[in-house]
UniProtKB/TrEMBL annotation:
GO molecular function: guanine deaminase activity; zinc ion binding
InterPro entries: Amidohydro-rel, Guanine_deaminase, Metal-dep_hydrolase_composite, Metal_Hydrolase, Metallo-dep_hydrolases
Superkingdom per UniProt: Bacteria
Pathway(s) per entry: Purine metabolism; guanine degradation; xanthine from guanine: step 1/1
Catalyzed reaction equations: guanine + H2O + H(+) = xanthine + NH4(+)
Positions of the Amidohydrolase-related domain: 67-427
Segments forming a coiled coil: none
The name this protein goes by in its record: Guanine deaminase
Keyword Transport listed: no
Enzyme Commission number: 3.5.4.3
Amino acid sequence: EKYTLLRGRVLDFHSRPEGEADTAAYRYIEDGAILMKDGKIKAVGAYCDVAAKATDAAVTDHRPNLLMAGFIDTHVHFPQVQVIASWGSQLLDWLNNYTFPEETRFESPVHCEAMAGHFYDLLLSHGTTTAVSFCSVHTASVDAYFSEAARRNMCMIGGKVMMDRNAPDALTDTPVSGYDNSKALIDKWHGKGRAHYAITPRFAITSTPEQMEMAGALVAEHPECFVQTHLSENHDEIAFTAELYPQAPDYLGVYESYGLLTPKTLLGHSIHLQPREIEVLAETQAKPVFCPTSNLFLGSGLFDDAGLRSKNIQNAIATDIGAGTSYSMLQTLNEGYKVLQLQNQKLHPLQAFHWITRGNAEVLGLADRIGTLEVGTDADIVVLNSRATPAMDLRMQCAETLSEELFVLQMLGDDRAIAETYVAGKAMKHTSGKTALAEGA
Ligand code: GUN
Ligand code: FE
């Protein structure tokens, strides 16, 4: 395979920057280049240096756009692409009125495959190159999810939701079938290409103690897998969980007692936490996931980013489609910024872009593969146009610093600001699922 070279303004992160002056934390190259081959990054640096290394490389000139690591969405629901923007309820009613009925349609493999195509088209058009997703209870939804990811060569994490109560019959498994089906899916998909499996008990309300025990057995037997669930999103949810698990000291205590908390555990929302739960998060290194657009949409509450960071608890940020209201990690940062403003917490634009790239990759333990532009990592790259709309262009006429530009992207940007998305070195934004298939390999 030939070398390909992308020319543009290059930005990536070594660590979480304190601000623009913290130049040890990030790398910014005004006339930069990324050299790629076989899906990997081979060189990064000043354009003249990198171009000299591969004089026969095919060059794509993205100037004046920014080149960054592809965005990572750490909590999303693939079967909810047709639930997004459903009016009028908070969490439990929203699940019963909109989400569960929609997820029953994923019983059909044909429906799963059609929705997977749309799902990946949406992720890529918004600059997201890796996501961690809940699939439906049906194994066909997981097969469609990972098959479509493999066709596009994407690094994706996901798993079958386990739920055996408080949901429609058509959506429930049993402790044994939930275990057996998850196990079979792990064997089939985990480690295949760029796929990672996540053991996925939906949340405490929809699993019996027997199922939680089986989920814990899976976690013990498969330490290579991720674990994902929901935690303390909504007050009614927390009260119902306390009724269902009267012996647990608190919500997180349920997951703790079944052995579900590991450094690879992702806990969606984690809003209304008790001091003991925060201690347990710090001890177990299970990771809270901030879902700002969803938390505002369902009226769930305000995530305490600074409070968790002060306890050395690293958290991730995510869309939570379909309770989330945008596929865009830029719009997710926009709403996240406002949620933190309501608590007088500051989010610097460099920290924001670190969060959706390297920060999320570190939470996943995958920063040696994705989330940066380091040589040897996978060539998942997003190309950002900070003048994509008239409003952005006008504002950019008065922007003087990199941080100002990033903030314009974060507050005003969406899929229109994504000029291109590269997955394993291939341009994917304008390639629909069907054409990706036709062009195949
Ligand atoms: N808690 C349990 N299931 C869900 C879900 O699908 N979305 C959200 N936002 N919270 C949940
Ligand atoms: Fe969720």
